[in-house]
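README, section 4: Worked example with a bound small molecule

Sections 1 through 3 covered apo chains. Here we extend the same pipeline to holo records, where the ligand is supplied as SMILES alongside the sequence. The molecule in this example is zinc ion. Nothing else about the input changes; the structure line simply encodes the ligand pose together with the chain.
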Amino acid sequence: MVVKPIFGNWKSIDIIDRIDNPIIITMKEPWAIIKPKINSIPSQVIFNKSMDIEHLEELFFSLKKNINNSKTIIGLGGGTSCDTAKYLTWKSRVQEDLNLNLLLIPSIISVDAFLCSSIAVREENKVNYIGESEPNNIIIDYELIKKAPKYLNRAGVSDTISITSALGDWKIAHEENDEKLNSRVFDKAKSIAENLMKAREDIQYINDNGIKALVDGFYNEVKLCEDWGNARPEEGSEHFLAYCIESITKEHYIHGQIIGLNILISLFLQKQNAEFSLERIHRFFNDIELDISPKSMYLSYEILKKAIQEVKNYIKKENLMYSVYNSSKLDLDKNIRNLMRFIKSI
Ligand SMILES: [Zn+2]
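The generated complex, written as C-alpha cells:
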C-alpha cells in the first residue's frame, strides 16, 4: 500500500534529528543543504549515482558490517538516492533477515518513484524491477524541494497528467481489444488530472500549494493504479513512445519533458477517442512553463519520426498494453505529415 506523505517546512530536519545513527543515502546538493541544519550524527553517508545491479551489490557488501548498528536507512535526494535506500532495505531483509526502517525524503519531485515501492535497477543497461520495499515514512519538505530547479519540479506533472492520454488508450483497448474498463476508476482518474490542472498557477511558481498539488496528484494516481491492479489509468502510449525513443537513442531524457511531449502526440493521434482536448493540455504545459519541445531535450525530428513509425512493433515486442498505436483505425502514413507539422509548432 502506498504510504501517505507527511508535509512541512524543514520537516526533514526534525525527523532526521529523532533518529539514532541512520545510514543516509544522498547526493551532493541536498546533503549540502541538510547537513549544517541537523544535530544527529549519521553512522554513514553514502553518495550513490548508479543503479547498476553489480554496483549496488558491492555497496551492500561494504555496508553489511555497519547495517547492524543502524536501524534506519534514509534516502535523501532524487530518484537514485530513494531507490538505493529502497534497494538496501530490501536486500537487508531478503539476505540478512534484518528489518530496517526506511525513510524517504525526496529533494525533488520530478517523478513519482519515491511513492512506488518497486525498486528499479539496471541490469545490462536495461531497467528491471527486482523487488519491493515499502517506506515507513515519506517526508515532503517544502523548503528542501524548493531548492531544486523549478523546471525539474514542474516536470513532475507529467506522471499524473499522463492520465489524459492513458484514458484515450483505455477506451480504444476497451472497444477494439475487449479490455475491461471500469467507469468508476476511469472517472476517478479523470478527476485527478482535473484537480492538477486547477493548481496550474501554484505549480508554475512551485510554492507550497503547488508542491502539495503535485505530490497529491502522484499519491492519488499511484493509489488508484494499486487498487485497480495495474497502471492502465495512468500509463499508455505516451510512456511506450518514450521507452521506444530511449531504446533507439540510448539517451535518458527528463522524464516529465519527454512524457509531456508524447502526451500531446497521443492526443493528436487518438482523435475522437481522446478524453481531453489537445489544445487544453498544450495550454496547461504552456501555463506552467514546462518546455516540452523536442529541441528542449535535444531530440531530433528524424529520431522522433522514426520512433513513431516503429513504436507499434516495439509495443508488440515488449508486450506492452494495447493503445492507440495498435489501433487498426490509426493510419500513420496518412497522419504523419500533419503530426510532424504539429510537433514542429510546439
Ligand atoms: Zn512515468
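What to look for in the output: The first helix runs from residue 11 to 17. The mean pLDDT is 95.

Section 5 describes how to batch many such records.
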